[in-house]
Amino acid sequence: MYNTAKGKQEFWTTFGQYMAPVLSSEGEKVNWINYKTGIRHIYFRMDAGKDFASMAIELRHPDEDVQMEYFEKMRGFKDLLETTVGEPWEWEGGLRDEYGVVYSRISKTIEGVNIFEKELWPPIISFFKPRLMAVDAWWSDVRMMIA
Predict the structure, then answer these.
(1) Which element (helix H / strand E) includes 109?
(2) Exposed/middle/buried for 55, CB within 10 Å: 0-12, 13-18, 19+?
(3) How far apart are CA 48 and CA 7, in angstroms?
(4) Burial classification of residue 139, based on how many CB atoms lie within 10 Å of its CB (0-12 exposed, 13-18 middle, 19 or more buried)
(5) What is the DSSP letter of 118?
(6) Residue 109's domain is classified under what CATH number?
(7) 8, 21, 61, 139: least CB-packed within 10 angstroms?
């Protein structure tokens, strides 16, 4: 497969179809690719490229003070998140994106996978699925305490 937007789109379509029958921790149907957290400016993000795959919780509230409040509230549930997903994640506050916008991010990344090679999709899917489901379960427990 070639390093193209079409190749990426094919992966995400396939992954979305694979996850479609999987219900949320609350037993509801969910769009895993475009997960709705229920809180504006808090997103679950998945990304993959020619040498990595990453899963993240991003806080992008335009008011940096509010964003840091959310981040600190989430940090209070760090042990629960890392116990639920079964591994440590990276916690970064006060990052700047390519446009200079400040955001915070809680993430896990693996290297050595390539979304543009179909034979390497199984390890990418095996990375995303359990983490996405675990983060959903964690979010179900803490969402109301963070809002």
Answers:
(1) strand 102-111
(2) buried
(3) 11
(4) buried
(5) G
(6) 3.30.1460
(7) 21
Which residue is it, tokens 């994640």? 89
Per-residue pLDDT of the chain (147 residues; tens, 9 = 90+): 566 888 899 999 999 999 999 999 999 999 999 999 999 999 999 999 999 999 999 999 999 999 999 999 999 999 999 999 999 999 999 999 999 999 999 999 999 999 999 998 999 999 999 999 999 999 999 999 998
Determine the straight-line distance between the first and last CA of the chain, rounded to whole angstroms.
Answer: 42
Containing domain of residue 42, as a range?
Answer: 5-146
- Report how far residue 39's alpha carbon sits from residue 74's, in angstroms, rounded to the nearest whole number: 13
Tell me how many domains the chain contains: 1
Tell me, yes or no, if the pTM score tops 0.85: yes
